[in-house]
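Researcher: Next entry in the queue.
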Amino acid sequence: MAYYYFDFGDADKRTLDSFVRSLIIQLTINLPKIPQDLLNLHRDSQDNKQEPSIESLKGALHALLMNSAELIVVVDALEECSNPVELVQFIGEMRSWKTVDLRILVMSRKHFDGADELEELRPIQVSIQDELANNDILIFVDDVLNKDLKIRHWPTKVKDDIKSALVSKAGGM
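Model: Structure for this entry, 173 residues:
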């Protein structure tokens, strides 16, 4: 399994390049030895004194996947990627490789740049922004308000206002 979170607070972690690099690291970290393709890529980048191109990194990832039995890739906060359209296109490219039993779980807000491209991949969608999620949020907030030593003795009206504000602004998240 490999996981990547597109962190809106860190511009370096919002690129396709950082995503591909992270997958490569996660897939090689437990291998008994580093694949020769990766060693060659590293050597070439050292010799040329420049970072490998995104195409070279994609090729290295593809080679790693060809030697994997199965893989689950979790992509969190896709909408925070600096170029979500490019990322969605790459996810489609990964799916087309058919070199591994590859499953990709993508989490994002419903509306973002690249949502139309994602629809073209015909994903199975599960919405967590609904009344059931709001109910879970209400239960959690209610539990905190009733168990927290500093808060549990506050007036009921204040706690009800807090619950109402948090649930109404949560939007299922």
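Model: The chain has a mean pLDDT of 86.
Researcher: Noted, moving on.
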